[in-house]
Specification:
mainly alpha; 2 domains; three-stranded mixed β-sheet; globular
């Protein structure tokens, strides 16, 4: 299936999951440090709410992509969840992506942030985790392009990552073995994924 078709399906599945979320659950902490479920949804609609020139200005003023994303999420957090869900649904089929990054970048964004929300809400992983869609995500995360806003340089140096639920591996050195989604989440610094890691390289990735 083409990448953007998977992106569309992921966005629509998340909209369906959150449409009837109880009001108090929107304040539930997500796996994204300092962000509630509401904040993560705000982030997911940011590309459809803030123009590229505006975002570039935020990056300059904030001193980096991460800080800019946090600033924008706080700014847009006044929008009600129903409005945010309608925006995500309306733009589910969007093929927009950050300049210079491949389609796997928005796929990684919706998959990982969807997990940030679902894990934060306590959803059982087996109900929605499909390893086959994560190959493109893992390929992107170990590529040089992921150093732009996703994975710090040298985080994976000396490690061999192995997905235990599909035929995927990358790198040389001490092994880190985990289910595909947990592997992706750990690479991106989500500490909730660390218990799923095995192998002599797991402590290095956790650190």
């Amino acid at each position: 299936m083409p990448v953007f078709e998977v992106v569309r399906a992921e966005r629509l599945e998340l909209v369906a999951r959150l449409r009837d979320l109880p009001p108090d659950a929107w304040a539930q902490p997500s796996l994204c440090s300092g962000w509630s479920v509401h904040h993560v949804l705000v982030h997911l609609v940011t590309p459809f709410s803030v123009s590229a020139p505006q975002m570039a200005l935020h990056v300059v003023r904030a001193g980096g992509i991460g800080a800019a994303m946090d600033r924008v999420a706080q700014m847009l957090a006044e929008r009600p969840p129903a409005d945010l869900l309608a925006t995500l649904e309306e733009h589910a089929g969007s093929t927009a992506r950050p300049p210079g990054l491949p389609p796997a970048a928005p796929l990684t964004d919706i998959v990982v942030h969807g997990a940030d929300i679902r894990w934060g809400l306590g959803d059982p992983h087996g109900d929605w985790d499909q390893p086959s869609r994560l190959g493109a995500v893992l390929d992107f995360l170990v590529s040089p392009r992921a150093h732009v806003g996703f994975v710090p340089r040298n985080r994976l140096k000396g490690l061999r990552l192995v997905a235990e639920d599909q035929e995927w591996a990358h790198g040389t050195g001490r092994e880190v073995v985990a289910p595909s989604l947990a592997l992706a989440m750990a690479v991106l610094g989500r500490r909730a994924a660390l218990p799923a890691l095995r192998g002599e390289g797991a402590p290095a990735l956790a650190a």
